[in-house]
Amino acid sequence: AAGGGGRSGTAADWGGFEDNMQGGGSAVIDMENMDDTSGSSFEDMGEMHQRMKEEEEEEAEGDAGAAEEEDGEFLGMKGLRGQLGRQVADQMWQGGKRQASRAFSLYANIDILRPYFDVEPIQVRARLLESMIPVKMINFPQKIAGELYGPLMLVFTLVAILLHGMKTSDTIIREGTLMGTAIGTCFGYWLGVSSFIYFLAYLCNAQITMVQMLSLLGYGLFGHCITLFVTYNIHFHSLFYIFWLGVGGLSTLRMVAVLVSRTVGHTQRLILCGTLAALHMLFLLYLHFAYHKVVEGILDTLEGPNMPPFQRVARDIPVVSNGVLNTTAKAIALAL
Amino acid sequence: FPDLTDVSISEDIPVEGEITVPVGSHSPDEEFSTLDEPVRDTIMRDLKAVGKKFVHVMYPKKSSALLRDWDLWGPLVLCVSLALMLQGGSADSKDDGGPQFAEVFVIIWFGAVVITLNSKLLGGTISFFQSLCVLGYCVMPLTVAMLVCRLVLLAGSGTISFIIRLIVVLAMFGWSTLASTAFLADSQPPNRKALVVYPIFLFYFVISWMILTFTPQ
């Protein structure tokens, strides 16, 4: 600190205006240092900012004192006002920069999420397989891993499968709107239903945290991914219903069993698990039918010319095939 | 205190040096000062850096040039050209120009940010902007695929053209994924490489899907 003070003092004897710009120009040096972030994280940048701010403050205070005195002598009142103006602007810039980097290091601190991503590939694979196996012991609470990597990847995979399904169903669609709808649907389901079931669990005194609920529901989407991947490529309706009951049912049963093991009381168990089972199975049904071309035929026959709005936005089907679709859809509806 | 006298002597030396140099700026700044060079030199230097990175993507061998001097010019140019080429490819062309461009833009940048955050959370040593830089530059094979698809679609849009487009897009998708994996996977702990590669695979899959299902009006 002594060396720095001495340096700035002697430089102010000769530097004058240039030295003040050095004090304000150290912000430019900051930007250059920001380029060199190889291997550093946000927290390091925050610390670096703190260190540079402290150095700047020391230099700025030293420069301000020396420059004001000597420029008052040399240039009279006009020079002094100019100097003061520049100092004020300098201080304001540094104050704003200080606040911005403090906010940055606070909100961009992704280390809060780091423990939830601490997994190995083997663990992820094991949990994926486990999500299809309902547990039998419902008398004591089952362990749920509070991990967010697997659920997040499963939600993104579901979005990708939905997009792939639209391609294989050969409908001419507006890609932009559909992409947004797909992402919104999947994320909305994952986050929204998790929050809703967490709220119900709070009402029903179930022992589960929000991260665990997100994790549980996320892994429950694995059954959805498998079902949709298969049935978007093989277009048999009966196959879909078998998968819906089988694969969807298994993953729902697992989630229900885990929740039951963590809840006390018959009414509460019934409310919680009934809601979750209904929402989970209905979501799979909705995903299959909302993005499948045959449904438009069914809706045409059932509702006539009044199509629901989302159908109108999502799809265009060539007029020629519509008649064929209508007749097949009617036949299937009659068969069901 | 004999040590303090030594310290005071060393303080005198820089004072002598600065008195003889009346400019008053630090010496490192003089060496790297690029303020006085002609504008053409500045632009050519940046263009050469961008071009060198494109070449690195074409032949993805292990080199640290892409990582060390990151820049986002290349990804911006690629993203904008891809979004422009993907416009006008839907049934209802009444009001589709705007949202289509914005959707592609948002998806590419949002996807790249998510992958970067994911790789950092999994314990990666690469920094935020370096990862964005790599992911953006590795979109280049898919942009080339988009160009080829548009040219093929000019010729016709039957089954043969679809098969050609499918092969081209699949090849470029594989190239993109391999290129970005070659740069990004090394910054991860060795047993978690698969966890980082999977989202990159999904990301380029979605972009390839957008390219493949493009039908001009």
UniProtKB/TrEMBL annotation, chain A:
Transmembrane segments: 148-166, 178-204, 216-235, 241-261, 270-291
Keyword Transcription listed: no
Annotated spans, Disordered: 1-72
Keywords in alphabetical order: Cell membrane, Cytoplasm, Differentiation, Glycoprotein, Golgi apparatus, Membrane, Transmembrane, Transmembrane helix
Main subcellular location: membrane
Compositionally biased region (Acidic residues): 55-72
Membrane topology field: Multi-pass membrane protein
Record's keyword annotation contains Transcription regulation: no
InterPro entries membership: tRNA_Mod/Golgi_Maint (IPR051521)
One GO CC term, this protein: plasma membrane
Top-level taxonomic group: Eukaryota
GO biological process: cell differentiation
Compartment(s) where it occurs, according to its Swiss-Prot or TrEMBL record: Cell membrane; Cytoplasm; Golgi apparatus, cis-Golgi network membrane
Function field: Involved in the maintenance of the Golgi structure. May play a role in hematopoiesis.
Family of the protein in this entry: Belongs to the YIP1 family.
Name listed for the protein in its UniProt record: Protein YIPF3
Provenance organism: Dryobates pubescens
Automatic annotation (TrEMBL), chain B:
UniProt signal peptide: none
Gene Ontology cellular-component annotations: Golgi membrane; trans-Golgi network
GO biological process: endoplasmic reticulum to Golgi vesicle-mediated transport
Keyword DNA-binding assigned: no
Keywords: Membrane, Transmembrane, Transmembrane helix
Primary localization: Golgi
Source taxon at top rank: Eukaryota
Transmembrane segments: 70-89, 101-122, 134-156, 162-184, 196-215
UniProt entry tagged with the keyword Amino-acid biosynthesis: no
Cellular compartment(s): Golgi apparatus membrane; Membrane
One Pfam family here: Yip1
All copies of domain Yip1, residue ranges: 59-210
Membrane topology: Multi-pass membrane protein
Family recorded in the similarity comment: Belongs to the YIP1 family.
Record protein name field: Protein YIPF
